Amino acid sequence: MLERINVIFTRLTDHHDTGLLLLRLTFGILMLFHGVAKIEHGVNWIVSILQAVGLPGFIAYGVYIGEVVAPVLIILGIFTRPAALIYALTLLVATLLVGTGKFFTLTEVGAWGLENEMLYFMGGIVIMLLGAGRYSVSTRTSMR
User: Do residues 28 and 120 lie in contact, with contact meaning Cβ atoms separated by under 8 Å?
Assistant: First the structure.
């Protein structure tokens, strides 16, 4: 009985490419909000953090690639795998710069202190591993 219900449910919900599209849209749009904030308010605060740890400040401008260009590519389904890798690496660098103090912490509601960072990072990794799927602005699979 349960097996039959599961087979029917699976048949009704087996939409791999739609799932990939929703995954890309969710993570791409959510990260794009962060990128838009950087466009509106600048990256000077990131420059100062980088310089404080002995890194050149110009590296901060790479955030525009990781939080604007990569999410747009992910949303459109163009060069999705490399864009998702850049997206994930952006999260890793951001976490190393400002989040390492939260590694062993819990929030007031019991969530891991780096829960959001990990969610975005793993979203990028999953998109990189799965690719764009069929729904992309490009019909050429070599561009997805």
Answer: no
Contact 106, 113 (CB under 8 A): yes
Between CA 8 and CA 53 the distance in angstroms is 56
Tell me how far CA of residue 21 lies from CA of 6, 8, 67, 70, in angstroms.
24, 23, 19, 15
- In angstroms, rounded to a whole number, what is the distance separating the alpha carbons of residues 132 and 31? 17
Give the model confidence (pLDDT) of 18-59 as tens digits: 999 999 999 999 999 999 999 999 999 999 999 998 999 999
Single pTM value for the model: 0.90
Residue closest to 74 by CA, chosen among 18, 140, 123 = 123
E strand or H helix at 143 = none
| C-alpha distance from residue 85 to each of 3, 14, 23, 72, 102 (Å) | 38, 27, 15, 13, 23
**Contact status, residue 86 vs residue 66, Cβ threshold 8 Å:** yes
User: What residues contact 61, with CB distance under 8 A and at least 6 apart?
Assistant: 43
Residues near 65 by beta carbon (within 8 Å), at least 6 away in sequence: 86, 90
